[in-house]
């Protein structure tokens, strides 16, 4: 009889404790068991996704800068995603052009996929663009460097890499565009130049 009462009392105690545990709040100052926490993963730089985002390509407008050469080029061409081109050189100011034709549309698509250069350390003049003929800029202190160099940066001032030999087609198209839109009268690109801004 005594054992029966003891067993009943133990069963009542177990039921009471179970009911209290179910009704009590989950976090009462004691740590939550590790296997009941929500799974989380973090990466350097922030929450999940930050470090795995793809590298963002160049952001238009792109700035094409041609320097060097025997003529001492110092030309700036702004190329917008809609095909508008703004041209400024030593003798041409505020010229507006519009790309047309399959080759020029092809140029825009090629430029939009170019690889961005790690800008640490900051690139020097002639790097990473290379020369329009694909040769590397250079020369020692005794040899004048007459190479024509075209550098490209995007809207966030990040340089684009044209040094890869496989990008010869892009470099050639960029060089042809620069050569055309900076002529006194462009031959292949439709341009409008404010009166009096082109030296003869």
Give a description of the structure.
- The radius of gyration is 33 Å and the shape is elongated.
- About 20% of the residues have low confidence.
- Strand 5 and strand 6 form a beta hairpin.
- The strands form 2 sheets. It has a 6-stranded antiparallel beta sheet, covered by helices on one side. A two-stranded antiparallel ribbon has the order 1-2.
- The protein has a domain of about 120 residues.
- It contains 3 helices and 8 strands; from the N terminus they run αββββββαβαβ.
Kindly summarize this structure in a few lines:
It is built from 3 helices and 8 strands. With 200 residues, it is of the alpha+beta class.
Compute the number of strand runs. 8
Distance between the termini: 122 Å
Helix content: 10-25%
Q: Compute the gyration radius: what is it?
A: 33 Å
Strand percentage: 15-25%
Poorly predicted regions are 20-24, 34-53, 121-131, 133-139
Biggest sheet features: 6 strands, antiparallel
Let me know the average pLDDT. Answer: 74
Number of helices: 3
Strand order of the largest sheet: 7-3-4-5-6-8
The structure class reads: alpha+beta
Order of helices and strands: HEEEEEEHEHE
| CA-based shape | elongated
